Amino acid sequence: MLALFVVVVSLWVVLACATLAIWGGVERGELPRGDLVAALGGTAACSAGVVTVAAAFAAA
User: Fold this and answer.
1) Terminal Cα distance for the chain, rounded
2) How does 8-46 read in b/e, with b if 16+ C-beta sit within 10 Å?
3) How high is the pLDDT of residue 19?
4) Which of 29, 41, 48, 51 has its CA 20 to 30 A from that of 57?
5) According to the model, what pLDDT value does residue 36 have?
6) 43 near 16, Cβ under 8 Å?
7) What is the pLDDT of residue 53?
8) With a cut of 50, which residues of the chain have pLDDT below it?
9) Closest-CA residue to 46 (of 2, 5, 20, 8)
10) Which burial class, exposed, middle or buried, applies to 54 when counting CB atoms under 10 A from its CB (0-12, 13-18, 19+)?
């Protein structure tokens, strides 16, 4: 269970960094072409995964 938590948190960190990088490009005037929406969606999904795995880990 701990390994799963580490994997999900790692994915969350990668997607959060991607979101910040894409957002930085948007602030410079670049067009994200759906990349920002995908990165935000992935970050939200991993956030839900982190909460789910943490709840399961706490219940075990």
Assistant:
1) 9
2) beebbeebbebbeebeeeeeeeeeeeebbeebbebbeeb
3) 83
4) 41
5) 79
6) yes
7) 83
8) none
9) 8
10) middle
